[in-house]
Amino acid sequence: MSNNQPSASSRCVRVCQNRACKKQGAAKVLAAFKASVVPGVTVTATGCLGQCGNGPMVLVLPDRVWYSGVRPNEVPLVVEQHLLGGQEVEKMLYSRFHSESQDD
Predict the structure, then answer these.
(1) Dmax over Cα atoms in the chain, in whole Å?
(2) What pTM value is reported for the model?
(3) What does the CA dihedral 21, 14, 82, 63 come to, rounded to 10 degrees?
(4) How do residues 58-93 score in pLDDT, each as one tens digit?
(5) 71 alpha carbon, distance to own chain's centre
(6) How far apart (Å, rounded) are the C-alpha atoms in residues 88 and 98?
(7) DSSP alpha helix (H) spans, the chain
(8) In this structure, how many other beta carbons lie within 10 angstroms of the beta carbon of residue 73?
(9) In what order do the strands lie in the sheet with 58-61?
């Protein structure tokens, strides 16, 4: 078994459903992921992911990829590009954990 490239069958998408994320529309984001069935990918509602105010937060495991401010209409892009295509959606990455070359 190789752990270098996780297969789709081992992935879990966690969508925060805690208070702050819920106010920002996390229930609709969760519904959009659940409607976009990807074989072998588990979609789970989760409690607070500890990034309040940046939501709705989505965490893809075991990739450890964080997406922030996810809107329901962006879910198909995550599904197609990341879950099916294996490429992170760079413009949606949570900058706190995925910083490339930021001039802050």
Answers:
(1) 41
(2) 0.85
(3) 120
(4) 999 999 999 999 999 999 999 999 999 999 999 999
(5) 11
(6) 10
(7) 19-23, 26-35, 75-77
(8) 10
(9) 42-46, 12-16, 58-61, 65-67
Token pair recorded at residue 61:
């495991």
**Residue 84 contacts residue 36 (beta carbons within 8 Å):** no
State the Cα–Cα distance between residues 88 and 104, nearest whole angstrom.
Answer: 22
Say if CB 61 and CB 83 are below 8 A apart.
no
- DSSP category for residue 18: S
**Are 33 and 63 spatial neighbours (Cβ–Cβ below 8 Å)?**
no
Is it true that the peptide bond before 76 is cis, omega within 30 degrees of 0?
A: no
pLDDT digits (tens, 9 = 90+) for 5-44: 444 458 999 999 999 999 999 999 999 999 998 999 999 9
CA gyration radius, the chain: 13
